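stage 2 :: seqdesign
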C-alpha cells in the first residue's frame, strides 16, 4: 500500500508540473522535452571502464563522459535496472551531477575521509573508488533505516575501507583524536530536494523518504533546513586537519546554497579555508550574490537532469606547513601540527572550540 501511495503521489506531482488534470491527459500529451541521456558510473573497485564499455557497446552506443572519471553516457531511455553489471555492483545508476560531488572532493588514496550524511551511499562508495579502496572512509548516518540502505550499498560496491557510524555527525567532537587525521569531508546534508526532477521517479526508491520533497518550496521548511545546513557546514570546517571540504545539495534554492556558504565564510577564513573552483570548464556557476560566488557550481534540473549545488573549500597555504598542488588548481594543506594519533572511539558531543571560533559560530547560528 505504501508503494501505491508513493506512486500516486509521484504521478500527481508530474501532472501538476506538466499542467494536466489527470494521467490520461499526461499520456496523450505531445511532449517537446528533449530526451536526456542515461548516465552510469563504473565501479572501479570491481571492474574496469574498458571492460564495461566492451560489454555495453554490444547493445548500445557508449561514450565516456568528458568530465567525470569512469562515467559513461548511454542513449536516452536505456534501461539498465536489471542488467547483470548493475545487479552485481559493477555499475551504478547515478546521475552526472551526483557523481560530480565526490569527484569535486577528489580525495587521494590513503586519506582518511568523512561522509557526514552518507545514506543511501552512492557518493560514499564513489569516494572509495576514487581512493582505489585505500585509506578509510567514516560514513555517518543518523537514521537507522537509511543506515541499512547505506550498508547494503557498501556491500554491493565491494568497498572494504568504509566504516558505517549510526549517529549524528554534529555530535562528533572535532578534538577527538579519532578524527585528528581526517583530511577531507563530504557534506551532503538534508535539503529540500527541489532540484530532483519528478519525472525521474527517484523518490520511488526504498532509500527515498516519502516526505523528502513534500512542501519543497515551503519557506518555513527551507529556513529550518538552511539553519541546520549552516550548523553542519560550520562543524565540518572545524575539524583541525581537513584540507578539502565539499558542501553539496540537490536544491535549487539560494537559501540552501549560496546563502549557506556566504554565512560561513568568516569562519572558513579564520580557519584558513578559501573557496576553490571545481570543474572550471563547467559554465553554470553560483548566483552572483556575494564576491566569490563564481567559484560555486550549479547544475540545472531541466538542462542537466538534476539541480545540484557544489561548494569546494580548500585550506590556504597560509594555514598549512607544506603544500601540494591539486587537480583543480587549489591548494592542499598538510595536516596541522596539533593533530593527534590514536583512536579513543565513539561519537562525542560537539565542544571545545577556541573562543574566537565560538564567537563566529554563535554569529552564524544566531545565538
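stage 2 :: out
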Amino acid at each position: 500500500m505504501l508503494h501505491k501511495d508513493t506512486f500516486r503521489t509521484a504521478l500527481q506531482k508530474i501532472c501538476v508540473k506538466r499542467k494536466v488534470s489527470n494521467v490520461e491527459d499526461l499520456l496523450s500529451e505531445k511532449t517537446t522535452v528533449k530526451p536526456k541521456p542515461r548516465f552510469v558510473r563504473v565501479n572501479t573497485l570491481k571492474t574496469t571502464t574498458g571492460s564495461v564499455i566492451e560489454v555495453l557497446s554490444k547493445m548500445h552506443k557508449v561514450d565516456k563522459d568528458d568530465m567525470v572519471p569512469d562515467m559513461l553516457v548511454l542513449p536516452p531511455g536505456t534501461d539498465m535496472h536489471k542488467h547483470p553489471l548493475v545487479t552485481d555492483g559493477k555499475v551504478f545508476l547515478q546521475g552526472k551531477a551526483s557523481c560530480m560531488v565526490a569527484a569535486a572532493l577528489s580525495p587521494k588514496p590513503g586519506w582518511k575521509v568523512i561522509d557526514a550524511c552518507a545514506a543511501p551511499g552512492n557518493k560514499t562508495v564513489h569516494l572509495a573508488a576514487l581512493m582505489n579502496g585505500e585509506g578509510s572512509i567514516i560514513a555517518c548516518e543518523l537514521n537507522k533505516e537509511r543506515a541499512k540502505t547505506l550498508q547494503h550499498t557498501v556491500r554491493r560496491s565491494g568497498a572494504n575501507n568504509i566504516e558505517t557510524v549510526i549517529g549524528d555527525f554534529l555530535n562528533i567532537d572535532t578534538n577527538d583524536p579519532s578524527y585528528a587525521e581526517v583530511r577531507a569531508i563530504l557534506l551532503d546534508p538534508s535539503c529540500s530536494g527541489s532540484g530532483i526532477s519528478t519525472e525521474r521517479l527517484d523518490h520511488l526508491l526504498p532509500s527515498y523518504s516519502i516526505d523528502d520533497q513534500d512542501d519543497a518550496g515551503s519557506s518555513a521548511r527551507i529556513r529550518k533546513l538552511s539553519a541546520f545546513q549552516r550548523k553542519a557546514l560550520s562543524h565540518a570546517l572545524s575539524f583541525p586537519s581537513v584540507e578539502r571540504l565539499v558542501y553539496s545539495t540537490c536544491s535549487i534554492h539560494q537559501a540552501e546554497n549560496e546563502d549557506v556558504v556566504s554565512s560561513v565564510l568568516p569562519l572558513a577564513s579564520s580557519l584558513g579555508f578559501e573557496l576553490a573552483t571545481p570543474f572550471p570548464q563547467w559554465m553554470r556557476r553560483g548566483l552572483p550574490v556575494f564576491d566569490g560566488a563564481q567559484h560555486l557550481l550549479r547544475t540545472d534540473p531541466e538542462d542537466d537532469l538534476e539541480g545540484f549545488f557544489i561548494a569546494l573549500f580548500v585550506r590556504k597555504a597560509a594555514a598549512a606547513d607544506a603544500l601540494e598542488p591539486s587537480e583543480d588548481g587549489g591548494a592542499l594543506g598538510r595536516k596541522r601540527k596539533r593533530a593527534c594519533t590514536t583512536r579513543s572511539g565513539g561519537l562525542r558531543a560537539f565542544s571545545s572550540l577556541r573562543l574566537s571560533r565560538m564567537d563566529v559560530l554563535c554569529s552564524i547560528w544566531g545565538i
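stage 3 :: structure notes
- The longest strand covers residues 309-315.
- Residues 198-215, 318-356 have pLDDT under 50 and may be disordered.
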